[in-house]
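Incident review: delayed structure delivery

Summary: a single-chain prediction request sat in the queue longer than the usual turnaround. Root cause was a stuck worker, restarted by the on-call engineer. No data loss occurred. The affected request and its eventual output are reproduced below so the record is complete for anyone auditing the incident later.

Affected input:
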Amino acid sequence: MIKSKFSELQKTKFLGSSYFIIVGLFSFIHTLLYTSNYASRDLIILIILSLPLIINKRLFYLGYGLVAAPTLLIMLILFVFLQSPLKTDITPPVFFFGSVFFILGLLASLSLINVGTYTKEKHRFRIL
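Output delivered after worker restart:
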């Protein structure tokens, strides 16, 4: 039971972190293809987004998730209310894609919070 919970936690850790790394990698590739003026900035952002897997500490996952979750929630709320297909000329597929993008980011950050609250010593979830 404990071994399966720990391996499930490793999968959650990897999936939550890989979402942010993939988004940063796409941003970096887009910058390299179209304008290389900001390539160093996007490289720094990609390194920052990959820090949870590099550092691999429980409180770092918790802090990263606690910063990302409210930010993505605010961005999702602003996107839904300001970019509604009924108000602007945005097409419904683009609106759906944008909403799913922010929802997946919110789920990834919540999974990092879940990883950050788990302790190996007592095999349960706790904050500090």
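Verification: Residues 2-34 form the longest helix (33 residues).
Action items: add queue-age alerting; document worker restart procedure.
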